[in-house]
Amino acid sequence: VGVMSERGIDIAGRPTKPLTRFTRNRFDRIITLCDKVREICPEFPGKPIAAHWSIADPASAGDTDEATYSTFEHVADEIEGRVALLLAEL
After folding, report:
1. What radius of gyration do the chain's Cα atoms show?
2. What is the residue-level pLDDT of the chain in tens, covering all 90 positions?
3. Distance of CA 73 to the CA centre of its chain
4. How far apart are the C-alpha atoms of 23 and 26, rounded to whole Å?
5. Which three-class secondary structure state does DSSP give residue 78?
6. Strand partners, 41
7. Distance (Å, rounded) from C-alpha 26 to C-alpha 36?
8. 3: number of Cβ within 10 Å
9. Partner residues linked to 2 by β-bridges
C-alpha cells in the first residue's frame, strides 16, 4: 500500500478479488504475474491474448514491512515498465 501510495495510486481498503469473479467477463488481454496463477488461470470467453510476466511475490522476501519494502518497490518498477511497453505496443 505504501509503495503504491508513493506512486499516487491509492489501494488502501481495496481487497483482492477471486479469479472466478471474472470468468464470465470478456477481455482483450489476460496478463498473469505469478507462476501459481498462470497454472490455475481459467479459459476466458473470446480467447483473449494471454501473456505471463513471471514476477516473484515480493511478500516472500521477508517477514516484516521493513524487510520487504525494497522488493515491493522493485516489483512496482518492473510492472510499471512492462505496462509502459504494453501501452506503447497497443
Report:
1. 15
2. 999 999 999 999 999 888 888 888 899 999 988 887 778 888 888 889 989 999 988 888 888 888 899 999 999 999 999 999 999 998
3. 13
4. 8
5. helix
6. none
7. 22
8. 19
9. none
Q: Which residues contact 1 (CB under 8 A, 6 or more apart)?
A: 11, 12
Calpha distance 30→62 (Å, rounded): 29
Cross-strand partners of 30: 50
Q: What is the DSSP string of 17-75?
A: --GGGGTTS--SEEEE-SHHHHHHPPP-TT--EEEE-----GGGG-SSHHHHHHHHHHH
Q: What is the pTM of this model?
A: 0.80
C-alpha cell at 89: 505496443
